[in-house]
Each structure stands twice: as structure tokens, then as C-alpha cells.
């Protein structure tokens, strides 16, 4: 049989499965780029304001570490490429990782790929279909970003170069995920390994840009920067990245031929012959299953909080003399003090990221159910509510832990950067981070309600989260109407530090979260499993 037999059918099936996830990712990244360009058009309407921006960034290593160097300040497109290039490339890489692992290692882990391979399907077809799906998503992202920037009046060549820079990074990490899917034995391990490579690439890029050396050349995200859209427009850089992705893909095919179906090349460590006493409760089992994810998110929040807090002094230097940027920060943060407004903004971003963790933790329940692992547990003297409660403690308390870690790290880093008191800054930002919890809990509660009442629609929780995040992050900058802003729980939170604390919206959000969670658990008690 041809090794690629059935690729077209599997590719079409993957597109059908991702008919919601894929457009949501592409739309979110395109909308973020377009809204950034619109915002910068208002903030820097003339050449003088853009020159002042370039001058303020020239000597600020902290902001270069966060966003990368500004290659072209003469056009809005160049400033947009600076602001969105690093994050856009990283998010395109994350999108590609999730798509490839979803259709390869995750399918093997759940046993579905074994059934597919029993038909007229070549052994390379599933991996090829997954890579084609990711490549289509990356190229569609490049096309839509290019079209959006051109429609906003930016140059076609620079817009196309920026779109291809994002797509090239996505292709590289799709290939990275193809390799980790052969090495790891589970979907979580494959995603975790590929995301670790993505995090290392971001760290190398940040260190290289901050020091002004060539260390960023070791990072695929750094390669995207080397395209220099709206400035040099180096077309050969995306081609080089695509060639590197092709080499990694060839390595993935070679590894695929050397392993058994369902097994990774890294052998799984055999477990104990008998379970330890600590695994005799549903909560202990949930902890065993979710602790790795919690540790990873805590580490990420510690790094993110330290980075955001460390650039506080650089932000003050940036807004000095630029009333437009200060106005945006005040509008988001809600206070005249620019530093407090900036810190309020980044802590709000950490709250939105914590909501991603919370939804991921809730959806683990659906994964245990559809994977057939919940049924043996519930066949014992364990009720559905006890089983679900063990997992739901992680979006409840785990999200509080990751926010506390991020707030403490941001406070300590901000104190080190500005010369303030470490204890006072840590306490102040810890409280500002924890005030995000009611919105995070409400997002997790919406996912719980879908899981209990409409299990087939459980993945739509990601769509609900995307709506909340887009409104909460872009709404204040783009001045959405009040009725639209009210749809996101994140727009009801007090703007801390600096703003006035109001407990009433926090109480209402918490009560609504409790009601949705109760509805979801009630539905779980009455419906069929699977």
C-alpha cells in the first residue's frame, strides 16, 4: 500500500473536526493585528510622534526583550509588525502545535487512529494530513493578515512579508510538534514538549534582542523578526524557515517508521503493581492527573509576571512625552498614574491567561469521559459528583495559585526595576492579581455547564473564552459600546492597582459562577456518560 494512501480523506476529516477551532484561531490573530494597526493610527498619527517612539525604544533593552526591535517607525505597518510580530509568531506556533498533536498523538492515545489504520490508510497519511491542516491554517493566517493590513492602507509588500513571517514560524512549530508526537507516548506529553521548545525559542529571542547579540538567530521566533516587514522585507527568511520545517518533517517521518502504533520512542515508565494509599480517593487521582499541567502553568506565570514587572521602568520611559499612549493605558487601567495603569493592564492579561488554564482543567473531565477512563472509576463506590468535584478544584484553587504566583513575581520584579519596596509591591500586585478570580471562575463555570448539560458542545467553551478575551482585551482600546463590554466578565473587574475597589461586581460574578457550576453538575447527574 502507498504510505500516503488516504491522506486526502483524513485531511478533509481534520478540516471538518476543526471547523470551529481553526477559524477561531485565525480570526483572533487577524483581528488582533488589525485592531493594533487601528490603535496605532490613532496613537501615532504623524511622523514626529513615530520618531519619538523610535527614539524612546532605541535604548530600552527591557522593551526590546518583550516586543523585539523596532525596524521601521515611519509607517503604521512597521509599528504594528513590531508590536504583534513576536506574539503573533508565538501564537501561530502554538496554534500549529495544538493542531498537529490533536490529529496524531492524541488520536493514537484515544485508540481512534488504530481503527483508521485498519482501513486502506498508509502509515504516513495521518501525520501528513495533520501537517497539511496546520499548513493551511498558517497560510490562511498569512493571507488574511496581509489583506487586513492592505485594506487599512499599508504597503502590500510589507503586509505580505509580515503575514509570511507569522506563517513561517507556524510551519516550523508544526514540524516540531510532528517530532514530539513520535517521541512522547501521550498527547499531553507531546504538547508539553513542543510548547517547551516554543518557550525556549521565545526566551532565546528575548535574551538576544535585549543584549543586541546574535542569540535570537537560534530561535524560529527570532527568524520571523529577521524578515523586517515594511523595512528590509527579506523574503528569503520565510523560505529558510520552511526548509528547516521540511527537515524536521523528514525526521518525523523517519521516527514514525521506527516505532509501534500507540507507543512513543521514549518508553513510558512502568507504574507500581499496586496503587499507593494516596490514590484511593477521586481527589488524589485528579491531583495525579492534573498536577503536571498546574506546575507548568505556575512556572509560566512566574516567568511572565517577572517579565511584565521588569519592564515597568521601560514603560514609564516610553510614555514620557507621548500623551496618546498614556491615554490608552489610563483608559484600560482606570487611573491617572501610568505605572498603575500599565500594571493593571498586564495583570488583567494574566487573569485572561488564567481563564485558559481554568477551561483546560474543566475540559479534562470530558477527556476522561470520552477516553473511557471515567467509567471504571464511577463503577466503584464513587459518585459522579465526587469524581467531578476532584477535577473542578483545579479551576477553582489552581487558577488562584497561578494568579498568586504571577502577581508575586510581577511585584518583586517591578520593585527591583523601579527601586521600590519588595514587600509592599508584592502584596499590592498579589491582591491585584487575585481580584481577577471571579471572572476566571465564571469562564470555568460556563465550561462546566456545557459539560454537564450539553456534553457534545463542550469544546464550544473555547469559543466562549475567545469572546470573553477579545471583548475584555480589545474592547476598552477600540471603545466598544457599553452593552458589548458587559458581555465579558473581565470588564466588570476593579482596575487594580490604583483604581477603586468595588466588591459588588465580584460578588455577582461569583454567584453567577456558582449557579452555572451547580447547573452543570445537576446535568451530569442525570445524563448518560459518553
From TrEMBL:
Keyword Transmembrane: yes
Transmembrane segments: 20-40, 81-101, 127-153, 159-181, 193-215, 235-256, 294-312, 341-359, 392-413, 433-453, 460-485, 505-524
Alphabetized UniProt keyword annotations: Membrane, Transmembrane, Transmembrane helix
Protein name: Exporter of polyketide antibiotics
Amino acid at each position: 500500500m502507498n504510505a500516503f494512501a488516504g491522506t486526502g480523506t483524513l485531511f478533509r476529516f481534520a478540516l471538518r473536526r476543526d471547523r470551529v477551532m481553526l477559524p477561531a484561531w485565525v480570526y483572533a490573530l487577524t483581528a488582533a493585528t488589525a485592531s493594533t494597526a487601528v490603535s496605532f493610527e490613532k496613537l501615532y498619527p504623524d511622523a514626529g510622534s513615530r520618531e519619538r517612539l523610535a527614539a524612546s525604544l532605541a535604548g530600552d533593552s527591557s522593551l526590546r526583550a518583550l516586543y523585539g526591535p523596532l525596524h521601521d517607525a515611519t509607517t503604521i505597518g512597521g509599528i504594528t509588525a513590531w508590536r504583534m510580530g513576536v506574539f503573533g509568531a508565538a501564537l501561530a506556533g502554538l496554534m500549529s502545535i495544538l493542531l498537529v498533536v490533536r490529529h496524531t498523538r492524541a488520536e493514537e492515545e484515544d485508540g481512534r487512529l488504530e481503527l483508521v489504520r485498519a482501513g486502506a490508510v498508509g502509515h504516513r497519511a495521518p501525520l501528513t494530513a495533520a501537517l497539511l491542516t496546520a499548513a493551511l491554517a498558517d497560510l490562511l493566517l498569512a493571507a488574511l493578515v496581509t489583506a487586513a493590513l492592505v485594506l487599512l492602507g499599508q504597503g502590500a509588500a510589507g503586509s505580505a512579508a509580515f503575514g509570511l513571517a507569522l506563517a513561517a514560524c507556524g510551519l516550523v512549530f508544526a514540524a516540531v510538534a510532528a517530532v514530539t508526537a513520535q517521541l512522547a507516548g501521550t498527547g499531553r506529553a507531546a504538547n508539553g514538549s513542543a510548547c517547551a521548545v516554543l518557550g525556549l525559542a521565545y526566551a532565546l529571542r528575548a535574551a538576544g534582542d535585549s543584549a543586541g547579540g546574535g542569540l535570537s538567530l537560534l530561535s524560529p521566533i527570532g527568524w520571523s523578526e529577521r524578515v523586517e516587514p515594511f523595512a528590509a522585507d527579506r523574503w528569503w527568511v520565510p523560505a529558510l524557515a520552511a526548509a528547516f520545517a521540511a527537515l524536521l518533517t523528514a525526521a518525523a517521518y523517519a521516527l514514525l517508521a521506527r516505532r509501534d502504533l500507540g507507543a512513543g520512542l521514549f518508553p513510558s515508565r512502568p507504574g507500581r503493581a499496586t496503587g499507593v494509599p494516596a490514590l484511593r480517593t477521586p481527589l488524589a487521582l485528579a491531583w495525579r492527573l492534573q498536577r503536571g499541567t498546574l506546575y507548568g502553568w505556575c512556572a509560566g506565570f512566574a516567568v511572565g509576571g517577572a517579565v511584565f514587572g521588569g519592564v515597568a521602568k521601560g514603560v514609564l520611559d516610553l510614555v514620557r512625552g507621548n500623551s496618546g499612549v498614556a491615554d490608552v493605558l489610563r483608559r484600560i487601567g482606570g487611573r491617572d498614574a501610568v505605572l498603575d495603569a500599565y500594571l493593571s493592564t498586564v495583570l488583567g492579561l494574566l487573569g485572561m491567561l488564567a481563564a485558559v488554564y481554568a477551561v483546560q482543567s474543566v475540559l479534562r473531565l470530558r477527556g476522561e469521559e470520552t477516553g473511557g477512563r471515567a467509567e471504571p472509576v464511577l463503577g466503584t463506590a464513587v459518585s459522579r459528583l465526587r469524581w467531578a468535584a476532584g477535577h473542578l478544584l483545579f479551576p477553582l484553587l489552581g487558577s488562584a495559585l497561578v494568579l498568586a504566583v504571577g502577581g508575586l513575581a510581577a511585584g518583586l520584579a517591578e520593585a527591583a526595576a523601579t527601586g521600590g519596596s519588595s514587600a509592599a509591591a508584592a502584596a499590592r500586585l498579589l491582591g491585584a492579581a487575585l481580584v481577577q478570580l471571579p471572572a476566571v471562575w465564571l469562564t470555568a463555570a460556563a465550561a462546566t455547564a456545557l459539560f454537564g448539560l450539553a456534553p457534545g458542545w463542550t469544546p464550544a467553551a473555547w469559543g466562549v473564552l475567545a469572546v470573553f478575551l477579545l471583548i475584555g482585551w480589545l474592547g476598552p482600546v477600540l471603545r466598544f459600546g457599553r452593552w458589548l463590554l458587559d458581555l465579558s466578565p473581565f470588564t466588570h473587574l476593579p482596575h487594580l492597582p490604583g483604581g477603586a475597589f468595588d466588591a459588588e461586581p465580584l460578588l455577582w460574578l461569583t454567584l453567577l459562577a456558582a449557579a452555572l457550576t451547580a447547573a452543570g453538575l445537576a446535568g451530569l447527574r442525570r445524563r448518560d456518560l459518553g
